[in-house]
Every structure is written in C-alpha cells, then in structure tokens.
Amino acid sequence: MVTMTHKPQSVESLLGKEAEDLLTYQAKVSKDLLHLPGADWVDRIFTQTDRNPQVLRSLQQLYSTGRLANTGYLSILPVDQGIEHSAAASFAPNPIYFDSENILKLAMEGGCNAVATTLGVLGSISRKYAHKIPFIVKLNHNELLTFPNQADQVMFASVEQAWNLGAVAVGATIYFGSLESTRQIQEVRQAFARAHELGMATILWCYLRNDAFKQDQDYHLAADLTGQANHLGVTIEADIIKQKLPMVNNGYGAVVKASDQKYGRTDPKVYSELSSDHPIDLCRYQVLNCYAGRAGLINSGGSSGENDFAEAIRTAVINKRAGGCGLISGRKTFQRPFEEGVQLFHAIQDVYLSEEVAIA
C-alpha cells in the first residue's frame, strides 16, 4: 500500500494558465488522418503487418498490462540512466535504486505497462519478475566513463540475451544526424529484424545529436527534424517510437542559416499547413511521421525538477491530444521518494484514462 505524500491535483490546476488552451485546442491536421489508440490496437494495426504471431502476442501483453491495460495507451518506466547519465547522477538522489529490484517494484506499484532497462538490471531478477511485468531490454547505450566524453550508442546486449531472460520487446537508440548514425542504423536494423524473428516487439529511441542543431534555440527538439527521425525509425520497423516532446520548428532552416550550406529537404507546407507553433500541432507532426500513427508515439518526460507533476501532466495532455500513445517517464519518477514516484505514474495514467482529455 502506497502512502500519499503528494496532494492530488486536477489536470486543470496542474496545467495552470495553459489549461483552457491545451484542453480545447483543435489541431491543424485532422485526427481523421490518423490511426488512433484504442482497445483493439493490436488487432486493428498489427494483424495486417509482416509481424509473426509471436510478435503479436508480445505486443498484446505489452498493451494489456498495468492501469492502462486494453486502452491502446502505454505508461513505461525507463531506467538506463545509470549508463547514459552515470549511476551517481541517476541514483544518488534516491539510493534505493542502486538495487535493481526496486526498479521493478516501482514499475509494478506504479501500474506501468512495462519496464525498459538494461540487460544487467533485468538479468539480475528475471526469474522472479519476467512473468509479472513485461520486460523491455535496452540493447545499446552511450556511456560517460570514456575521456573525453563522446556521444555514440554501442551495443551492450544481444537480442538473444533479451529473449532468454523473457523480454517481450527490445529497445535501442539511434543518434540521427550524428556522424555515427549510419553505423547505428545498420546495427539497430539488424537487431530489430532478429527481435521480430524471435517474437519480440521493437521500440526505437529516435534522438537527434549534432552540435549544428544548437543555434538560437535547441533544434534537437524541432518538430520537422524529430519528425524525420521518426520516419527513419518506422522505416526499420520500429513498432513504437520514443521521441522527445517538440518545442520548436524549422530546424532545417536554422541549420542552413547558421552554416550557410544546403541541408536536407523540406516543404513550406510543413510549416503553413501541417504544423504551427502550438505544442499539440508540433507533436501531431511527429505522430504523422510515424506512418500516421500506425507506430505508436511515446514522448519522454525529461529530467527531474521542482515542477515534475505539472510538467509530466502537460506532456501527457499534449501527447494524448496530438494522437500519441503514451509517456515514458524515468528520472521524474525514480529521483524522488518511492511513494511520490508511484503517485506521479498514476497521475500521468489518469490523463490517458480521462474521457475529458480528448483527441484534438
């Protein structure tokens, strides 16, 4: 039993001055163009694909677990930050998570659909928990012990290892836009193909990484660039796309202006007809690039801070109203007291369970 330590607040109160706008805005691109989450998600979307019956079973298990079971929405706990951000930076705020079992306990008590973490974490307690909550093994990581620090995703686990410990899915990151992305695309494509052969679903962390994307604003969060990353991700058959919530747009134009060189290709209609500066429109453009929602879009919650509950609810509202399929929430949930982490997960999930938060 979780003891209440954070007083529950309504969605409207957490959204503050943005409440009316975020809850009533009608998106520029019609929702009628999208494949939207629902109880029949696996039947409606995946039974017509090339995924084999074992993958369909894994996807159904993923979408049928936790408080969001059989809604078409996902709430996932990701804990790979011990490698990506260092164990010290990740777990010192709450040292109980140095113990791998507590990661699983948080996901289960939090009502999550699944836990996404490292081979080591899941391998250390797989026989105790593999039949209790779906496992997602994160295959590759960027570690911060090499000096000088570098940005490159390298394989820490094999697909066969993930299958042997009972995973229903594998996850991987590609740093699109980086010099290493060509190799990463090839490695992840091969891993995803093998995962599908063995009956596991695939989730891609579609991140951007290039210093050229940092100009007057951080265009790593640009809707047009992240949208194209999503499109590349579904091309290598990611079943689910994990992406950061977009904050700006026209990253292509910013890079061209700063470098005085040609870069990529886009179309003026992206900015005039398919998106705007409204956060729901920016996120909907990301969904549009996931084969119009056939691959579910989950947005990430970002780093932990003073306004975690408000920020997480805002992200959930934007993702859901844009046509996304859920939230993946890490540091905001485990870098705080266990009970508060559970409450934050439940608050996020309540957004997806609420009939009052409707698709824009």
From TrEMBL:
Q: Where is the signal peptide?
A: none
SUPFAM superfamilies annotated for this entry?
Aldolase
The UniProt GO MF terms for this protein read: fructose-bisphosphate aldolase activity
Q: Specify the superkingdom.
A: Bacteria
Entry-linked Pfam families: DeoC
Keywords for this entry? Answer: Lyase, Schiff base
What SMART domains is this protein classified in? DeoC (SM01133)
The EC number of this protein is: 4.1.2.13
Q: Which PANTHER family match?
A: FRUCTOSE-BISPHOSPHATE ALDOLASE CLASS 1
State the family it belongs to.
Belongs to the DeoC/FbaB aldolase family. FbaB subfamily.
Q: What is this protein called?
A: fructose-bisphosphate aldolase
User: From which source organism is this entry?
Assistant: Acaryochloris thomasi RCC1774
